[in-house]
Structures are given as structure tokens and as C-alpha cells.
Amino acid sequence: MDLMTAMDISATGMAAERIRLNVISMNLANAQTTKTEEGIPYQRRTVIFRTTPLSRLFPVRSYFAQVLQDYLDSEVDGVKVERIEKMGGDFRQVYDPAHPDADENGYVLYPNINLVEEMVNMLEASRSYEANVTAVKAAKSMALKAMEIGR
Question: How many CB atoms lie within 10 A of CB 97?
């Protein structure tokens, strides 16, 4: 595997984790949203990743690279976001008869979002993004060292 491929793999990971961080941020921002456009509380969302061959994620750089890839017949995979999915589950019921969205019994339905779980997910996504950045920096450093050797 060449250094550009290593950087491409890390780039797919960074792009996927960026989307995951955005979804987690959206969950945190809507943790108290009792009514959406559908008339129900906000539903927690999660990101589903899928491995995908790099050749489908990035266009082939040259004819030679495509022929070589076909000859080697070994696909290198990256990651992409397959979908963003609403998570099922019961809404939290909180007794607050003064709330404008309270039902006839005085209960308000809140989103099925656990703030602690979302923060842990955010830390995990952030660390994954940082790991991919470190891999890109390592590949860049190796490329620069290889160029110095070639002088």
C-alpha cells in the first residue's frame, strides 16, 4: 500500500467521524425538544458506517493505477456513512402540568436522549478523528523522509 492510499483511508475515516460528530451535536442540541414538525419529540439519531472499497470513494488517479489495482485484485477499504438512522425507544415522561406541551394528565414527553451517553459518543468520535489525523501526519512524515532519502 502506498502512502497516498494510507492518507485516503484516513481521510474517509475523518469524513465519517465529522458527520458522526455533527449528528451527536444535533442530538445534544435537541435533548429538550418536545415537538418537532411531526408533532412528536425529537428522536435520537445515530450514524451507521459501512466499509467501502476506496476505488468507489475516490476516482482512479491514472489508467496505470486502475490496471495495477485490477491485476492485484485486492481492494483496500475505507469507510463511509451508509445512513443516519432514527433510534426507536420510549420517550421520557416528565410531570410538568405548566408546560405548554403537557398532556391531559400533566406529563410532557421528552426525547429519548441520554446526555452522558451522547458525551461518551462524542469523546469516542473525537478520539477516532484524532487517530486518523495522526495516521495522516505519520504518512506525510514518511513521504517527506522518503523524499529526503531520494536526494
Answer: 11
